[in-house]
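#structure-requests
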Amino acid sequence: MVDEEEYRRTFNQVVTSPCPFEKAIFRRVCSCRRAEKTNIAEREVVNCRSADAQRNCVEFLHHLRRRANFALGMTRTPGALPHAKAIKIQCGGLLGLQQTLDPFVEEPRVSDVHALVGRALKRFENISDVPYDKIVRFVHQYQVRVRARSRRTSNERSDV
């Protein structure tokens, strides 16, 4: 097992441009041609291979977070979000952006985040002009699936 401090040092050396949609990529809700997965010890991380793409995604996510507080049941935007809320923002936000740009798409998955954010920039010219009110509905509706834990009945428990 890797010491947490050593992991952080290695992470900062390896991940120079972290993907802001890492959780959505790990959930397989999306993929991105600019994403590069890397393993550090037992953990997998996602680095963005394009500084421009990363900057656009960070800006989109920033605006989305500010506007999605109410949908997440929050009154302000704290530093780091709890894991489940971050997943709702990332997954619901990307699916909402996809539906906003193409209401007839039936794919419940974003094939390329970089291309999607690029299309939004072309259509709205500025990332702050994206209709976030439409996208926030998808954030609110996105269901974070909880992995089923194996439960043993009282008859299966061993008395140790």
